[in-house]
Design goal:
Blueprint lengths: L22 H20 L5 E4 L7 E7 L9 H14 L9 E4 L3 H13 L3 E6 L4 H9 L3 E5 L5 H12 L2 E2 L2 H8 L8 H8 L10 E3 L6 H12 L5 E6 L5 H6 L32 E4 L2 H15 L5 H19 L4 E7 L13 H6 L5 H13 L5
Parallel strand pairs: 2-10, 3-4, 3-6, 4-5, 7-8, 7-10, 8-9
Antiparallel strand pairs: 1-2
The structure holds pyridoxal-5'-phosphate.
The site of pyridoxal-5'-phosphate has 19 residues, from α8.
Length: 377
């Protein structure tokens, strides 16, 4: 990535191979922006679901169900924002591929938008990505390019962009700035709108897991901008460096291997992760994430991805603290993507065994919490 001497990202706009004032290019650009905006205009807001808790606690738990977007995850919002940002910056050009480093969900959504505006799409992703996500990327007309070491995803994406004259979207850098965090029906504004008629319309906590960090940055900035008292908690899975980097104020923190919880947990402190905006982080064992997401199905009849379990586990822990302190209020966490993408992972006992994950003690802890309100550790 090309940077100025001030460390500012110059972006790929330096490669001028299209005349920006060419009427044909401008007509293409207008049409591409219109198509992306029209997709948003055709879409309804995602639901805020209630997770049932014992009435006497005086605490309400909600899940913002991001699985109902046209491409099935919260990455639909991100992909829309990144396409608009890339188009309006003149970075995405007719006939040139869009390339992304992605563990899957972003690539699924970006493949959809690339097809919508008629440009090729290539996803650079870890070989361990679930086959269902690869199938979805190809379904939307995208290509999958696999790497063995997930840490090389970024450089391989940049190299592929240079080779093809395409645009490396770079979600991990641009997620936080491509999103309109002050409002414009972003995920935070939508949550507050949907809580308006609830008994605790201002949540005590909003829980958001971090992959790019974009969602937690958007929510945290919005909360501060509108002067809410809500606190933001970001739970982090095993094999991710975000928790250590946040705890020790270390922007160079790294981890050695990839996260098992798809969509979240990163081996480096991503530029889009904004630690200063966050109130609290928690480390969540992967087995706890799986136990929590399975409890979700028993409670509301819905399967979700592993990251939803990570967030839910953290929300349970925050609620146990509220119960202990006699605090009433509401807590919001996210249902990030649907569980049918992971039937051979988080919903497969043989996968758990292969990974050496024993969810039994965590499942017992969740059951105990849901009946007593107390946290076992
Ligand atoms: C990307 C992703 C997240 C985290 O969102 P970010 O805005 O990238 O931090 C959580 N869950 C899933 C399934 C994801 O794909």
């Amino acid at each position: 990535m090309d940077t100025t001497e001030h460390g500012q990202v110059r972006g790929p706009a330096a490669t001028v191979d299209v005349d920006r004032s060419d009427p044909e290019y401008r007509a293409w650009l207008k049409e591409a922006v219109r198509k992306v905006q029209a997709d948003a205009n055709r879409s309804a807001d995602t639901h805020l679901l209630r997770f049932p808790l014992p009435e006497e606690w005086g605490i309400d738990l909600y899940l913002k169900d991001e699985s109902t977007h046209p491409t099935g995850s919260l990455k639909h919002r991100l992909a829309r924002s990144l396409f608009l940002y890339g188009l309006c910056n003149g970075w995405i050009r007719p006939g040139k591929p869009v390339i992304e480093a992605s563990s899957g969900s972003t690539a699924v959504s970006e493949a959809y938008f690339a097809k919508l505006i008629g440009v090729p799409f290539i996803a650079v992703m870890p070989r361990t990505t679930s086959p269902e996500k690869c199938r979805l990327i190809e379904f939307h007309g995208g290509q999958c390019h696999f790497v063995d070491d997930s840490r090389t995803m970024y450089e391989q994406s940049a190299a592929l962009a240079a080779e093809t004259g395409g645009h490396y979207m770079d979600q991990f850098t641009y997620a936080e700035r491509a999103t309109d965090w002050r409002g414009n029906n972003n995920i935070a504004e939508s949550i507050y709108q949907q809580l308006r008629l609830e008994r605790y319309p201002e949540p005590a906590w909003i829980v958001a897991t971090a992959g790019t960090g974009g969602t937690s940055a958007t929510i945290a900035r919005y909360v501060h901008y509108l002067q809410h008292d809500t606190r933001i908690c970001v739970p982090d899975p095993e094999n991710s460096c975000f928790f250590d980097g946040w705890t020790h104020h270390d922007p160079h923190a790294t981890s050695d291997c990839g996260s098992r919880i798809e969509g979240i947990g990163r081996p480096r402190m991503e530029p889009s992760f904004v630690p200063g905006a966050i109130d609290r982080m928690m480390k969540v064992p992967d087995a706890a994430s799986v136990a929590a997401v399975r409890a979700l199905e028993r409670a509301i009849g819905r399967k979700a991805g592993g990251s939803t379990g990570t967030g839910l586990w953290s929300a349970f822990k925050l609620i146990a603290e509220m119960v202990e302190q006699g605090e009433k209020g509401s807590v919001v966490t996210l249902l990030c993507d649907p569980g049918d993408r992971y039937l051979d992972k988080y919903y497969s006992d043989s996968w758990l065994e292969e990974q050496g994950l024993d969810i039994a003690p965590y499942a017992a802890a969740v059951d105990d919490f849901l009946s007593t309100g107390t946290w076992p550790c």
